[in-house]
């Protein structure tokens, strides 16, 4: 590229760079700075630098600590179910009559915003008028206080998350299954492998890197779970369904307007996400699996 | 020549239109859903009478309205010119609100002839002030009422059954202890002959609802003779939750008894920890419960529900068995907007709080009046049945704190009470003391 063309190219991308700096980099830098201040919108003249106080405070805040529990629960219960179901659906649907129709239907939940899921869930799991209790009544089951008990409220949120994000995992794995070379599966069949053996020894190893990618994306996303909680349980009963992200919202917007403390919570979320993803990438040896590591 | 004439004509027309557009002051008014339809209705009338002012009314949910306003006022951006303000947020919002006391002193002409400040109910007026300055005009004197099924309470068969069961006549409960028996009687799983599935619709979710439900139960203890002796009179800024010298007043046997009263009613309510405002209105409106503590404006939903017809025979309204809790709203003006907009916004909120406007919004939208003359008005009393009951209810109301730290206190309290009621935390004074310690920390300036 000539020098003149390069200047023109820079000129063209400059507005985007400026927009990115204003809309992403500045707020990000501002958040990090504010995490070291006592900025609170309800208190006049707040915003003084207080060092690491907000960060020390987090480790003594029972509400922050209890919101780790539910975030973790979504990750270690919800995400594995999504991966498993996505894998099963992708395997079962392939080659099925009406495959295209099923494929399209499976993707619908993913296109619905979390907030809409929450509103629908409020109606479905309503104690007196909800479809869930109505359905259970046919089996003689007494109405369940879905949103009023810790265990059932947690079930509802995880169920909604699984419902919404299994299609995403399905999509990744389904695409992977379609890209498995035909000659490999044919060779397995010639060697006498049945369907299950072909899947286990030929297709699954090919899919493994994609499964890991799906896992990492879902873990990052599960840490951010917010809309369904906001619309359905508001983190309750107590803190049973309060995720870290929802607690940040409560502290920073809904109840506290404590911007300094909420920023510190957000920074912690960022650090935890980064560490977790790096551990997963190293543990799963993802770079090598995808053929993008420096060593390969 | 003709071409020039046409050009001059077009330019002149554009100039006239531009001048006309510039002459119109547009104000942006943001309100909660409780106040929204009535303010929209009044805005139409106001614009007809004041063609030089255009009013854009936006309705935003309670959960979103407050943070948006606070962000706007804190950043001094002046996005919203006027807004409805929950008076319990006064402490947090006051720094961005126009001081109307001073404004009226500086601009006495803005107050329309016939606008009677002295007619405003003293309590509603006082709740719209901060440090003696008027920072909003009282608009909606909301309070909680005890709705009950009049037809069931007056039914001789149920009266007889109740007497056989409890050895005393069936009547609308005047204490929460009485309410437990009545709620049990009207719950089918405890009394198969009950005409309703549940006795009472309660809302104890982990939201700000919990924060206004607790004072219904704690209020009777806090304002009893013993309570006043121990904690002093209730301070308007600190409210029922506090002692008169600004310390938490609930970490004791009274706070515990209030929570025990709440818990005692829970078996007779449909999913109390998972139900909020909308659900409980629906439960009562569909005839599923015999009783329902609710705010004033759901009355219109009840009165239009097919399950509660004829409404005058089925919907009974009584004072709360404990005490009610104030839920007042005021209309305020942003301090950080231009003088022109301030003038237009003040004119608008004055219009909305006239006696005529108050009567209209009471009749059409069940907006509880802020003026004494409306409470005394036979037309108003005939339009909405709770009007005549309001004066006595206002006498004994409980109050939420209005101090700037209120939102933080609310956040930690809702969670603790929800955990106590669900059994996740022990129902003990120690648990309440731990909550009080967190309050003290917040009040001292910590998280």
Topology:
The complex is a heterodimer of chains A (296) and B (447).
Chain A: H1 3-34, H2 53-58, H3 62-93, H4 99-111, H5 114-124, H6 131-137, H7 150-178, H8 182-190, H9 195-223, H10 227-232, H11 244-254, H12 259-283, H13 286-290
Chain B: H1 2-23, E1 25-31, H2 36-49, E2 53-59, H3 62-75, E3 82-86, H4 90-93, H5 100-106, H6 122-127, E4 129-130, E5 133-134, E6 137-140, E7 144-149, H7 150-153, H8 156-166, H9 176-185, E8 198-200, H10 208-222, H11 225-231, H12 253-265, H13 277-285, E9 289-295, H14 299-303, H15 311-314, E10 315-318, E11 329-333, H16 339-352, H17 355-365, H18 372-375, H19 378-383, H20 390-395, H21 406-422, H22 429-443
Parallel strand pairs in B: 1-2, 1-3, 8-9
Antiparallel strand pairs in B: 3-11, 4-5, 6-11, 7-9, 7-10
Helix pairs in contact in B: 2-17, 9-12, 10-12, 10-21, 21-22
Please characterize this protein's 3D structure.
The complex is a heterodimer of chains A (296) and B (447). Chain A has helices spanning 3-34, 53-58, 62-93, 99-111, 114-124, 131-137, 150-178, 182-190, 195-223, 227-232, 244-254, 259-283, 286-290. With 296 residues, chain A is mainly α. Chain A is globular. Chain B starts with a helix and ends with a helix. A 5-stranded mixed sheet of chain B has the order 2-1-3-11-6. In chain B, strands 8-9-7-10 form a 4-stranded mixed sheet. Chain B has 447 residues and is an alpha/beta fold. In chain B, 49% of the residues lie in helices and 12% in strands. At the A-B interface, helix 11 of A face helix 3, helix 13 and helix 21 of B.
Q: What average pLDDT do the residues of chain A reach?
A: 89
Which structural class matches the secondary elements of chain A? mainly alpha
Order of helices and strands of chain A: HHHHHHHHHHHHH
Major β-sheet of chain A, in short? none
Provide a count of the helices of chain A.
13
Number of strands of chain B: 11
Low-confidence stretches of chain B: none
Helix content of chain A: over 70%
State the separation between the terminal residues of chain A, measured CA to CA. 31 Å
Largest interface: A-B, 38 and 41 residues
Provide the spatial order of strands within the biggest beta sheet of chain B.
2-1-3-11-6
Structural class of chain B: alpha/beta
> What does the radius of gyration of chain B come to?
25 Å
| Spatial gap, N to C terminus of chain B | 77 Å
Helix content of chain B: 40-55%
Taking all Cα atoms into account, the compactness measure Rg of chain A is 24 Å
């Amino acid at each position: 590229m000539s020098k003149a063309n390069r200047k023109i190219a820079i000129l063209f991308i400059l507005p985007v760079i400026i927009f990115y700096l204003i809309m992403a980099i500045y707020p990000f830098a501002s958040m990090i700075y504010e995490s070291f201040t006592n900025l609170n919108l309800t208190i006049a003249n707040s915003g003084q630098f207080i060092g690491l106080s907000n960060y020390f405070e987090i480790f003594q805040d029972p509400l922050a600590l209890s919101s780790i529990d539910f975030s973790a629960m979504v990750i270690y219960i919800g995400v594995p179910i999504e991966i498993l179901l996505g894998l099963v659906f992708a395997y079962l649907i392939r080659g099925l009559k009406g495959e295209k129709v099923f494929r399209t239907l499976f993707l619908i939940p993913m296109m619905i915003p979390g907030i809409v899921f929450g509103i629908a869930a409020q109606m479905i799991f309503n104690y007196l008028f909800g479809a869930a209790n109505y359905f259970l009544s046919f089996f003689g089951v007494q109405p369940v206080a879905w949103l009023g008990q810790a265990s059932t409220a947690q079930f509802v949120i995880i169920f909604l998350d699984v419902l919404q994000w299994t299609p995403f995992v399905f999509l990744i794995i389904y695409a992977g299954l379609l890209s498995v070379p035909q000659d490999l599966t044919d060779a397995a069949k010639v060697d006498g492998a049945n369907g299950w053996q072909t899947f286990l020894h030929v297709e699954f190893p090919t899919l493994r890197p994609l499964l890991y990618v799906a896992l990492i994306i879902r873990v990052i996303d599960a840490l951010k779970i917010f809309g369904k909680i906001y619309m359905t349980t508001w983190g309750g009963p107590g803190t049973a369904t309060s995720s870290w992200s929802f607690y940040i919202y409560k502290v920073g917007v809904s109840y506290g307007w404590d911007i300094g403390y909420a920023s510190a919570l957000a920074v912690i979320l960022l650090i935890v996400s980064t560490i977790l993803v790096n551990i997963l990438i190293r543990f799963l040896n993802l770079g090598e699996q995808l053929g993008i590591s420096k060593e390969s | 020549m003709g071409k020039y004439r046409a050009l001059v004509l077009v330019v002149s027309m554009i100039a006239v239109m531009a001048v006309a557009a510039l002459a119109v002051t547009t104000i942006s008014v943001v309100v909660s859903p409780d106040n929204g339809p009535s303010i929209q209705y009044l805005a139409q009338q106001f614009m007809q009478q004041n063609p030089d002012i255009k009013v854009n009314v936006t309705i935003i949910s309670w959960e979103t309205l407050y943070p948006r306003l606070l962000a706007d006022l804190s950043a001094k951006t002046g996005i919203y010119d006027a807004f409805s303000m929950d008076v319990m947020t006064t402490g947090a919002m006051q720094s961005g609100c126009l001081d109307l006391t001073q404004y009226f002193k500086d601009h006495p002409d803005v107050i329309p002839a016939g606008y009677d400040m002295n007619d405003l109910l003293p309590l509603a007026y006082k709740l719209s002030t901060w440090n003696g300055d008027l920072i909003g005009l009282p608009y909606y004197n909301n309070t909680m009422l005890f709705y009950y099924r009049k037809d069931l309470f007056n039914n001789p068969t149920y009266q007889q059954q109740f007497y056989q069961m409890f050895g005393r006549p069936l009547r609308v409960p005047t204490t929460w202890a009485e309410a437990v028996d009545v709620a049990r009687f009207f719950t089918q799983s405890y009394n198969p002959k009950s005409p309703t599935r549940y006795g009472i619709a309660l809302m104890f979710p982990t939201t700000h609802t919990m924060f206004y439900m607790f004072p219904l139960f704690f209020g009777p203890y806090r304002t009893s003779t013993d309570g006043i002796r121990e904690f002093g009179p209730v301070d308007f800024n600190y409210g029922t939750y506090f002692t008169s010298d600004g310390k938490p007043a609930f970490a004791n046997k009274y706070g515990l008894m209030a929570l025990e009263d709440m818990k005692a009613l829970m078996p007779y309510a449909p999913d109390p920890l998972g139900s909020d405002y909308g659900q409980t209105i629906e439960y009562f409106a569909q005839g599923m419960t015999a009783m329902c503590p609710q705010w004033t404006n759901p009355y219109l939903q009840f009165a239009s529900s097919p399950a509660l017809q004829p409404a005058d025979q089925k919907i009974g309204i009584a004072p709360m068995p404990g005490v009610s809790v104030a839920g007042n709203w005021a209309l305020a003006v942003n301090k950080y907007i231009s003088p022109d907009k301030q003038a237009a916004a003040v004119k608008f909120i004055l219009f909305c709080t006239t006696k005529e406007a108050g009567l209209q919004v009471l009749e059409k939208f069940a907006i509880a009046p802020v003026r004494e003359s409306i409470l005394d008005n036979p037309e108003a009393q005939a339009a909405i049945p709770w009007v005549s009951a309001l004066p006595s209810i206002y006498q004994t109301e409980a109050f939420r704190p209005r101090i700037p730290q209120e939102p933080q206190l609310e956040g930690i309290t809702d969670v603790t009470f929800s955990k106590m009621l669900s059994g996740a935390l022990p129902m003990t004074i120690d648990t309440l003391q731990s909550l009080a310690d967190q309050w003290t920390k917040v009040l001292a300036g910590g998280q």
